[in-house]
Amino acid sequence: MHIPDNCLSPATCAVMAIAMVPAWTVSVQKVSKDLPKEKVPLLGIGAAFSFLLMMLNVPVPGGTTAHAVGGTLLAVLLGPSAACLAISTALLIQALVFGDGGILSFGANCFNMAFVLPCLGYFIYKFAKDRVKTKRGEYIGLAIASYLAINFAALCDAIEFGLQPLLARDAAGLPLFCPYPLAISIPAMLIPHLTLAGLAEAAFTVAIVAFVTRASPGAIYVGSPAKTKPLYALIVALVAASPLGLIAAGSAWGEWGPDEIKDVVNGGKALGFVPAGMEKGFHYAAPMQDYGLKGVPEIAGYIMSAILGVAVFIIVYKLLSFLRKGGKDDGVKAGA
Amino acid sequence: METVPEWLLPEREPYAPRPDKGRYLEKNVLSILGTLAALREKPGAGRDRELLRPELALISTFLAVLLVSLSRGWFFLETASAFEFGCLCLLRGGIIARVLKKVLAAGVFTIAIFAPAFLIGRGGGVPALCCKVLLAVLAMAIFSAATPWHSITAAMASLRIPGTLVMILDMTIKYISLLGGLLLDMLCALKLRSVGRDDRKVSSLGGLAGTLFLKSKDAAETQFRAMECRCYSGNYIMKPRSSYGWREAALAAADIALLGAFAAFGIAR
Question: Closest Cα of chain A to B264: distance in Å?
Answer without folding.
Answer: 18
